[in-house]
């Protein structure tokens, strides 16, 4: 199992009960290098610990929407700030074209969070639009990570990134009130199943994975066009 360095917000680890693990991670970090200046936190974790966290932004988006509709603006802003942490992390590990979109999403969500805290946001459509666009660009980022892993022959990593891409795509579609076709929904269900069952002893057929990656790329582009249209009329 490879060890990977991740820059993550310290708030994500405040609730961790395994303090010994955090201490070990900190000790390992010193042997790897200095903490990045723009990093909100620094920890070295095994990929088995990283992959369960790949759905954290979706959870934050869902929670922000939930709290907003209960008139809990500060709680909604806190969830948006949590999502921003992951967008920043992704931007630091993205290709230029995706990084630009991630940076734009960060700016958009920061503005949204500020307005929520000051009581200047009453439009659910604006919140849905911002969260949907952020979820979509994270889906695109995970798609490219899956494609990169696939090219390296790392089928397990590819499958799990593809699963994360699907989760973000579905949230973005829900935010835009968009429904994917039956074939795409079936594909998403298959990808979720494969992502959950991947392990060191269970893999996915290379050809099947390659086809799934191609189909997810189509879904990413399809939803991108829809978001462009809805942003002009609703957001």
How would you briefly describe this protein structure?
The protein contains nine helices and two strands, in the order βαβαααααααα. With about 240 residues, it is mainly α. It has two domains: about 50 residues, no CATH class; about 180 residues, no CATH class.
Structure write-up:
With 235 residues, the chain is mainly alpha-helical. It folds into two domains: 3-52, no CATH class; 54-233, no CATH class. It is built from nine helices and two strands, in the order E-H-E-H-H-H-H-H-H-H-H. The chain has a two-stranded antiparallel ribbon. Helix 4 (73-91) runs antiparallel to helix 5, helix 5 packs antiparallel against helix 6 and helix 8 packs across helix 9. The longest helix has 28 residues, at 124-151. The radius of gyration is 18 Å and the shape is globular. The termini are far apart.
Largest sheet: 2 strands, antiparallel
**SSE order, one letter for each helix or strand:** EHEHHHHHHHH
- List low-confidence stretches: 1-50
- In terms of DSSP E residues, the strand content is under 5%
Strand order in the largest sheet: 1-2
> How many domains would you count in the coordinates?
2
**Which of globular, elongated, flat, extended, rod-shaped describes the shape?**
globular
Structural class: mainly alpha
- How many distinct helices? 9
Return the average pLDDT rounded to an integer.
80
Q: Which oligomeric form is depicted?
A: single chain
Approximate helicity band: over 70%
Radius of gyration: 18 Å
Number of strands: 2
Q: What is the CA–CA distance across the termini?
A: 44 Å
């Amino acid at each position: 199992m490879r060890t990977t360095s991740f820059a993550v917000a310290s708030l994500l680890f405040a609730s961790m009960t395994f303090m010994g693990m955090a201490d070990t991670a900190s000790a390992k970090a010193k042997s790897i290098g200095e903490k990045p200046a723009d990093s909100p936190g620094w920890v070295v974790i095994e990929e088995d610990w990283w992959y369960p966290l790949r759905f954290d932004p979706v959870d934050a988006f869902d929670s922000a929407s939930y709290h907003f509709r209960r008139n809990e603006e500060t709680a909604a802003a806190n969830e948006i700030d949590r999502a921003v942490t992951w967008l920043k992390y992704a931007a630091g590990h993205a290709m230029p074209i995706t990084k630009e979109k991630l940076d734009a999403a960060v700016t958009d969500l920061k503005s949204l969070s500020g307005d929520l805290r000051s009581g200047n946001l009453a439009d659910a459509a604006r919140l849905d639009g911002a969260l949907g666009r952020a979820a979509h660009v994270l889906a695109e980022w995970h798609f490219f990570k899956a494609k990169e892993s696939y090219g390296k022959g790392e089928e397990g990593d590819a499958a799990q990134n593809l699963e994360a891409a699907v989760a973000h795509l579905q949230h973005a579609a829900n935010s835009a009130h968009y429904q994917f076709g039956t074939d795409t929904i079936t594909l998403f269900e298959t990808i979720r199943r494969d992502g959950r069952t991947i392990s060191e002893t269970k893999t996915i057929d290379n050809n099947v994975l390659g086809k799934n990656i191609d189909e997810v790329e189509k879904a990413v582009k399809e939803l991108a066009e829809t978001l462009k249209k809805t942003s002009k009329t609703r957001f």
